[in-house]
Every structure is written in structure tokens, then in C-alpha cells.
Amino acid sequence: MFDIQMLLGRFHPLIVHLPIGFILIAIILKSLEIFKKEERYRPAFVLILRLSILASVAACITGFLLSRSGNYPDRDINFHMYGGLALVASTIGWYWLETNSSSSKYNRLCFGITGLLLLLTGHWGGDLTHGKGYLLQGLPPQLRNILGGEDKDIALTFDISNIDSAMVYHDIVQPILEARCYTCHSDKKQKGDLRLDDIQYIHQGGESGEPLFHSDLSKSQLYKALTAPMEDDLHMPPKGKTQLSVFQIEAIGDWVSNGGDINLLVQDAQPNAAIYKWYEDELSDQKLFDNFLIPEQSVSKADENVIKELQSSNILIQPVGENSNFLEVSLINARDIEVEALQPLLGLVEQVIWLEMPNCELTEEKLALVNQLTTLTKINMAHSSLSETSLQNLANLNQLKTINLTGVNISPTDLEVLNKWTELKKIFLYQTNLNNEELIAVQQQYPALDLDTGGYQLPSIPEDTMVYKFIPKK
Ligand code: HEC
After folding, report:
1. Exposure of 181 by Cβ count < 10 A (0-12 exposed, 13-18 middle, 19+ buried)?
2. Cα gap 57→12, rounded to integer Å
3. In angstroms, what CA-CA distances link 96 with 33, 90, 177, 375?
4. Is 117 exposed, middle or buried (CB count within 10 Å of its CB: 0-12, 13-18, 19+)?
5. Nearest CA to ligand 1 atom 20
6. Any atom of ligand 1 within 6 Å of the Cβ of 192
7. Which atom of ligand 1 is found nearest the CA of 233?
8. How far is CA 53 from CA 65, 206, 268, 446, 459, in A?
9. Does any ligand 1 atom lie closer than 6 A to the CB of residue 237?
10. 242 Cα to the center of ligand 1, angstroms
11. Do residues 221 and 205 make contact, with C-beta atoms less than 8 angstroms apart?
């Protein structure tokens, strides 16, 4: 389809350079006139002022068309747009005064105003295309903060009191997009011609024109971007950025296949299994334990070279909190990693306290290595396979406070290791092959342990009044 509006609009970033250039020349010629008393440029000066008017009118028209393409937020455009209109008005005023009035006082006032408006409008326009603080980005961070060009990653937090009545977009998806995608897909920047900071833009999609939403996830550009291999240009967030957890990806998947409805409640979504799983595996755990999962004593900074080496094998490493030297290590992008590539972890024994290794093949060698990470307070190995080995291989982890064994094949003898994990407060045993009697036996043996079997926690009350319920989650 031929879209004249879009075609002309997209010339705006090119055309704006004309009035900038012309007005700058006019300013230089006028300055020569004022300070050097040079009169001989007068005819050129008047011509340049006329061209400035023409060019700035053209810039206004194309700018207006571009703004209608809908990729920019109104509040940010307004400054630039009114600045541009004021610039046209003051240029016309300046021209009129220069050619009709003999009062050099008003000439100079208009000249000053035009120069100022040129600077401001150009600056606001730059913010729109390159993002706020673009000019300052090359500065050292300390200096950048002083000048206000800071561009911080925001922490990912969720505030959900009841998952059933939570809203899929507002409470789950939007915070994830905000923390992990807005830096490149919002009012600041629109990489791939895509904005994700407002539901209306999300539904517009990006440059590929592929729909972001589809009941068949393999046809959703959004889900494809989140699940594409790391090397793929489409993989989001791009390599090197903080990645989404598998649970977050699948929770977004549930929203996508429901059509991206903004008012959808978790309990009404069809399907919603991944959202419940996300909540179970990631959030309820996080809510209950994150604080005391971080040791109180401090620790020295980890060796950057070791971190780089691990990252080169697609292992994700990030601090557990702002200003913390403790680290979380995740193998979600390196599930088939060889044990040799994990060896450098031993250089981070003091710092690594959280380990994410869901859906991994956990061999005896790998567990033996993990067993040396004795500062670990949290392990997530949901749906990992332990086929030839046993949890007994993790008996040294005496700081462990929570472990997620959802979907892992374990036997009652595996659980003898609980004697060694003296700090353990919570264990997820949902979808393991332990039967109800075995689970009850565990709870009786460790009454203080918070045993999560899928939404239902076995109550740790006196045994004679105990009622056990095992109702699988939807
Ligand atoms: C560091 C910048 C950056 C971040 C962060 C980022 N993206 Fe992107 N995104 C890009 C770039 C660059 C492209 C264009 C890639 C291409 O065309 O190959 C893109 C393209 C896309 C596209 C394809 C649009 C289309 O129709 O062609 C989707 C979907 C997408 N991103 C989603 C996301 C999501 C979801 C997140 C957050 C989880 C995210 N991106 C985070 C830079 C980023």
C-alpha cells in the first residue's frame, strides 16, 4: 500500500537539518554584521532567512505527519512540536523586522529568541529519536549522573497478594516488560520499530509486521523473540542483557495465547498453567524468602575475569540485589553445559548464593561441583533430571535455605540428605514421584520445614489434629 503520509513523515529527520543549517548561517551572518560591522553579506543574509522560513515550514509539515504515525508519546512530542512552531514564528518575525523595520533593538531580540528556540527544539527532537540523555551516554557514569543522563536498569519486582485475582498484564507482564524491555522499546527508543510501554503500541507490533499475539504461540512474534536461540538477532532481550527466566517467558506465553487482553484475570485465562507455575516456582518463593536468603555478612567483589569466562558459556550471572556482591547464577541458557565449562564457578564460591538450574541434566559430576558451592542458600532444579545420581551428592550445602525440586524424580532415600541441610526452611516437592504417605512422613520427621506440594502446604501443627490435603493446582 502507498502511504504518502508515512513516506513524507519519514523524511522529517532528514529535512530538519535544512532549517538548522540555514538558521545557523543566518545567525553567523547576523553576528558578523553586529560585531564586525560587515554589511556586504546583507543580500545573502536576507535570502538565507527566506530559505530558513521555507525549510522550517517543510520540517513542521513532515514532523506533523511523522507524529501521526503514532510511535511517539504525546507528552514528549508536544515540547518539540510547539518549539518547532515557535521557531517558525520567530524566524518569520525576524525576517519581517530585518526587511521592514529600522529598529535594531527588536531585530536583535528576535535573533536571540530564534537562536534559543533552535537549540531547544533541536534538543527535544534529539531526545525523541535517540532517547533522553543520548548526548551524555559516552560520559563516565559519575559525571553522567550529575548531568542527569542516567539510564538505570530497574529492579524486577511483583506485588501480588492473591494470584487468582491478579491481572495478567498489569501485575505480571507489564513489570517484566518494564524492567527488561523498555530501555529499547519505549518512549526512549523504538528498536525494531516496536514500543512495549503501552498496550496500544504493543498491539501495533514492530517492523516485521508479524502479529505479537496468536493463539498458536509459534506464530507470535513476541513469543518467538523471547524463545529464539541466543545467537539469533531476534532473541530478546539481546545477548548480554539480563535475560528472562523460563517461568517468566512461559507466563508471558499464557498472556500471548489469550490474545494480549489488558484486563484479563489470572483465573480467567485459558490456559493459565504457566502463570501458576511461574508464581509457584519463582514468585511465592521470592516473596517468602528473598530477604533472609541473602547472608548478612558482606563479601568481597567477585573476580570479573571468572565472571566473563562463565558468561562466555552462556551462563547468566547477576548480583542478587542492588549494591550486593553476592551473585545469582543461572543455567537456563546453558542447560546442556559440560561440567568442564562449569569449573570456573569454584572461583566464585564465596559469592554465589543462588543457583538456577531448572530443566537441566544433572550428572554426578555436576552435582559434585555444585556441592562445593557451600555458600548456596537457594537452588532451583525444577524439572531437572537426576537419573543416575542422588541428592546425597549435595550433602555439603549446609547453608541451603530453600530448594525447588518440582518435577524431579527422587526417592525417599534421597531425602535423607535433609539431615545435612540444617538451615533448610522450604522445599518444593510438587510433581515429584513421592506419594502422599511419603510426603506426610517427611513432614512428620521435619515439622518445622515448609513443604510445598503445589499450592498446598502441609500444615505443621500437632500431629493428632493434622489434616493433609493434596489438591493438585489447576
Ligand atoms: C538492548 C536493546 C533491546 C532490548 C533490551 C530489547 N530489545 Fe527487542 N529489539 C531490539 C532490536 C535492536 C530489535 C530489532 C531486531 C531485528 O530487527 O533483528 C528488536 C526487535 C524486537 C521484536 C521484533 C519486532 C518486529 O516485529 O520485528 C520484538 C517482538 C522484540 N524486540 C521484543 C522485545 C522484548 C519482549 C523485550 C524484553 C523482554 C525486548 N525486545 C528487549 C532491541 C532490544
Report:
1. buried
2. 11
3. 17, 10, 51, 76
4. buried
5. 192
6. yes
7. 18
8. 19, 35, 58, 82, 78
9. yes
10. 13
11. yes
Cell reading at 353: 548464593
Cβ 239 under 6 angstroms from ligand 1? no
Residue at grid coordinates 506440594: 453
Q: Which of 353, 432, 348, 441 minimizes the C-alpha distance to 391?
A: 432
Judge if the beta carbon of residue 207 lies within 6 A of ligand 1: yes
pLDDT tens sequence across 13-66: 888 999 999 999 999 999 998 888 878 888 999 999 999 999 999 999 999 888
**Cell for 290?**
528473598
Does ligand 1 have an atom closer than 6 angstroms to the CB of 290?
no
| 260 vs 246: CA distance, rounded Å | 19
* Ligand 1 neighbour 132 (Cβ under 6 A): no
Asked whether 151 and 183 are in contact (CB, 8 A), the reply is yes
Q: CA of 198: how far to CAs of 75, 186, 187, in Å? A: 14, 8, 10
* CB-CB contact of 22 with 48 (8 Å): yes
Cβ distance 220 to 211 under 8 Å? yes
N-to-C CA span, the chain: 47
Centroid of chain to Cα 96: 51
Structure confidence by residue, pLDDT tens digits, 285-334: 565 555 667 787 888 999 999 999 999 999 989 888 767 889 999 998 88
Between CA 396 and CA 235 the distance in angstroms is 38
Contacts of 403 (CB under 8 A, 6+ apart): 378, 379, 380, 381, 421, 424, 426, 427, 428
Average predicted confidence (pLDDT) for the chain: 84
Q: Which three cell numbers stand for residue 52?
A: 530558513
